[in-house]
Amino acid sequence: MAGDVNFVTGFGRTLKGSRSPIKQKQGIKVYDQERSRAKFATKKADMRRWRLCQGDSGVPLMKLQMPDVLAAQQLVQDAQRFLNILMR
C-alpha cells in the first residue's frame, strides 16, 4: 500500500561493489501509481516488462508485521506493479 515501507533481502552486491557474506536488508518505500509514473518519466527509465526483474534472484518483498519479525508478502505477480516501488 502506498506509504508503506517494505523490505528486500539478499547477498547481492553492496554499494562498495562487493558481495556481502552477510544477508543484507533494504527498506523501500511504496508509492502510488501516479507518483511512480511521474518519477520514472523524469528518469527516462526503460521499464519494459523483460527489464524490470533482470538479474533478480527471486527474493521476496517483505513487510514488517510485528516488531523485528519479517513476514513474506506475496511478490508482485505482474511486473507492471513493480512500477509502484521505487528503490533508492
From TrEMBL:
Protein's UniProt keywords contain Hydrolase: yes
This protein's UniProt keywords: Hydrolase, Protease
GO terms, biological process: proteolysis
Keyword check for tRNA processing: no
MF terms (GO), sorted A to Z: peptidase activity
Protein known as: Serine protease
Organism: Culex quinquefasciatus (Southern house mosquito)
Gene assigned in the entry: 6051063
